[in-house]
Amino acid sequence: MIFEHDYPYTESLSSRLQIALRKIEFSRKYMLTLLDDLTEDDWFWVPDAFPTHVAWQVGHLCMSQYGLTLFQQRGRNREVDSQLMSSKFRKLFMRGTTPVVDRETHPSRQEILDVLNKVHTQMRTEVIHFSDEELHEPLDPPHAAYATRYGALLFCSDHEMLHAGQIGFLRRLMGKPPLR
Fold first, then answer.
1. Are 21 and 13 in contact (CB under 8 A)?
2. Nearest partner of 34 among 146, 132, 177, judged by Cα
3. Nearest residue to 85 (alpha-carbon basis) of 117, 55, 54
4. Cα separation, 180 vs 101, whole angstroms
5. Which of 38, 131, 150, 166 is the most buried (most CB within 10 A)?
6. What digits encode the pLDDT tens for the residues 100-151?
7. SS3 166
8. pLDDT band at residue 1 under the 50/70/90 scheme
9. pTM to 2 decimals?
10. Residue 141 phi/psi, 5° resolution?
11. Is 157 exposed, middle or buried, given 0-12, 13-18 or 19+ CB atoms closer than 10 A?
12. Integer angstrom CA distances of residue 2 from 39, 66, 105
């Protein structure tokens, strides 16, 4: 499975930023292929003794991309951020939350996908303006997985691939074939 990178403006970006963006784009496109054939019911299917579902995994990816590529890069922008997702959405899927099995507590598959796309689009709009010097800036406090703004961008794709693996595992438990 080969994905084309569709950043027409990469020539103007630093090589480090290009690397981070390509990794983020690759992991997002891969994760989306795992969702292509899943129904609304598949999104909320919960296997025995494994309290999670695709809806929580994807909602959590919305939050993590927001946190790693926007919030930790520039802080909160109340005007923009409130357009991306509701406070209720953030509280349901933020770091440290546990998947809730009750389907009624979650937004629909389409609502989650809409937030996923809005956050990704906003990331693409803002990240291209980061300078190489800004990418070297340390985060305060640093995270266990990264210490700089650049590290947060790189971890975004790593984190998405981790959850893509969980989505892939859920797919297999549903009886779906592996993707080729």
1. yes
2. 177
3. 117
4. 30
5. 150
6. 888 899 999 999 999 999 999 999 999 999 988 999 999 887 888 899 999 9
7. helix
8. very low
9. 0.91
10. -85, 155
11. buried
12. 25, 26, 36
The structure tokens 């595992």 sit at 169
Reply yes or no on whether the pLDDT at 88 is more than 70. yes
> Could you tell me if 31 and 160 are in contact, meaning their C-beta atoms sit under 8 angstroms apart?
yes
**Sequential DSSP letters for 116-152:** HHHHHHHHHHHHTT--HHHHTPBPSSPPSS-SBHHHH
The burial class, CB within 10 Å (0-12 / 13-18 / 19+), for 16 is middle
CB atoms within 10 A of CB 169: 14
Is 61 within 8 Å of 31 (Cβ atoms)? yes
DSSP 13: S
Contact 61, 116 (CB under 8 A): yes
| pLDDT at res. 14 | 80
The span from the CA of 130 to the CA of 110, in Å, is 31
